[in-house]
């Protein structure tokens, strides 16, 4: 049964991606939501007994592999090439996430004993993405049900905000922000993740090399942690994996590996199925209102702070919306939002900023969590 459960976690993401390309309903929900739902449904089928230990092992292996694969496509040397308005707005979005999570977290400190952990995890997801939230949760030893509830709340809030971005966000922002003006710095960068599909046999070699390199990076980081501390410490191991992933991205041959980012996304979907399978329906239906409100307030305040600061500094509406998309959703939604804005010039920079958020998410999230715990005297 355990072998079948692990195979289910590994293979279902392929079905989710296939369905997303062929069925409108599946495309609307997206592969991440489908994978979580699949895990939750199977875990709550009467008569089915899943191994929570197996699901935890799958999730613990997936995160260290997904992070370097997602980072290989990044290139920190491109960051200074971005337009000044984009860089400023991106920095403001990161600051807004930290400030929003810190302020709301402090307000909720009497509601849950994991308030400071949750704040750090939310900074991770609203600067980088789900992989960052999962990594930070592992480092801080947050309860698995906490992660499931946070992700459920984030999926709902994120879905509502995405609809706003794809519909009338630009018209609203143009009422109090200047319009976008193209500059040479806004030329789109080449990005291996822009291909519609790389899941062909012609790209299996690059994917294999990327996967092997990700395994090597994880092994080096874990080995160095064991050597220095005498035992496996999650914090230095995951920060080491993040740092080595960024360093590897500086090598042109690594950065040009076709399909590495998509493979990282697939590994992340495996994590989603595994985490969903840990969810008991009773956990999702009872005692979760506080966490849902916590997440929605953090996301809402972060968006408002980012928008207000960008407006005060006279940053254009399109750059602000693209930076908000890059930090809250990562690279995945840059294309659709740029299309809604009718501004293809921001696709390349937006993808770069999305990857930059993944690179920074772990650092900022952990610093936020530890800072809040220190302020509370913990």
Return the CATH architecture. Up-down Bundle
Radius of gyration: 20 Å
Count of helices? 17
Compute the number of structural domains. 1
**How many DSSP E strands?**
0
Mean pLDDT: 84
Tell me what you see in this structure.
It contains 17 helices and no strands. The longest helix is centred in the last third of the chain and has 29 residues, at 347-375. Helix content is 74%, strand content 0%. Helix 3 (52-71) runs parallel beside helix 10 (234-249), helix 5 (115-127) packs antiparallel against helix 17 (347-375) and helix 15 packs across helix 17 (347-375). It starts with a helix and ends with a helix. It has 378 residues and is mainly alpha-helical. Residues 184-196 have low confidence and may be disordered. It has a single domain, classed as Na+/H+ antiporter like fold (Up-down Bundle), CATH 1.20.1530.
Descriptive key words:
378 residues; Na+/H+ antiporter like fold; mainly alpha
Topology:
Layout: H1 2-22, H2 24-43, H3 52-71, H4 84-107, H5 115-127, H6 130-139, H7 144-166, H8 169-173, H9 204-229, H10 234-249, H11 252-255, H12 260-276, H13 281-285, H14 289-312, H15 317-329, H16 334-341, H17 347-375
Helix pairs in contact: 1-2, 1-12, 2-12, 3-6, 3-9, 3-10, 3-12, 4-5, 4-14, 4-15, 4-17, 5-6, 5-17, 6-17, 7-14, 9-10, 15-16, 15-17
């Amino acid at each position: 049964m355990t072998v079948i459960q692990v195979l289910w976690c590994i293979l279902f993401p392929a079905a989710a991606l296939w369905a997303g390309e062929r069925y409108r309903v599946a495309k609307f929900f997206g592969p991440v939501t489908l994978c979580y739902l699949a895990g939750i449904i199977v875990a709550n089928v009467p008569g089915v007994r899943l191994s929570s230990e197996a699901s935890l092992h799958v999730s613990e292996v997936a995160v260290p592999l997904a992070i370097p694969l997602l980072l290989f496509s990044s290139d920190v040397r491109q960051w200074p090439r971005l337009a000044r308005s984009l860089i400023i707005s991106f920095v403001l979005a990161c600051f807004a996430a930290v400030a929003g999570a810190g302020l709301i977290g402090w307000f909720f400190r009497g509601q849950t004993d994991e308030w400071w952990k949750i704040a750090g995890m939310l900074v991770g997801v609203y600067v980088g993405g789900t992989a960052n939230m999962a990594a930070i949760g592992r480092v801080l030893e947050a309860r698995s049900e906490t992660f499931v509830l946070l992700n459920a709340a984030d999926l709902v809030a994120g879905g509502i905000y995405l609809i706003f971005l794809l519909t009338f966000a630009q018209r609203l922002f143009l009422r109090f922000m200047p319009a976008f003006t193209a500059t040479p710095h806004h030329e789109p960068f080449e990005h291996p993740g822009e291909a519609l599909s790389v899941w062909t046999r012609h790209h299996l070699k690059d994917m294999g090399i990327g996967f092997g390199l990700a395994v090597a990076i994880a092994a080096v980081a874990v080995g160095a942690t064991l050597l220095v501390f005498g035992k496996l410490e999650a914090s230095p191991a995951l920060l080491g994996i993040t740092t080595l992933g960024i360093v590897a991205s500086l090598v042109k041959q690594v950065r040009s590996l076709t399909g590495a980012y998509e493979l990282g996304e697939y590994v992340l979907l495996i994590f989603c199925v595994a985490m969903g399978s840990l969810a008991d329906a009773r956990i999702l239906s009872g005692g979760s209102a506080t966490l849902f409100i916590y997440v929605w307030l953090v996301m809402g305040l972060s968006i408002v702070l980012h928008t207000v600061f960008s407006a005060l500094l006279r940053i254009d509406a399109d750059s602000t919306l693209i930076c908000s998309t890059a930090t809250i959703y990562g690279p995945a939604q840059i294309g659709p939002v740029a299309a809604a804005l009718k501004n293809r010039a921001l696709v390349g920079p937006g993808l770069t900023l999305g990857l930059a958020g993944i690179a920074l998410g772990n650092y900022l999230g952990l610093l936020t969590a530890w800072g809040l715990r220190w302020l509370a005297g913990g």
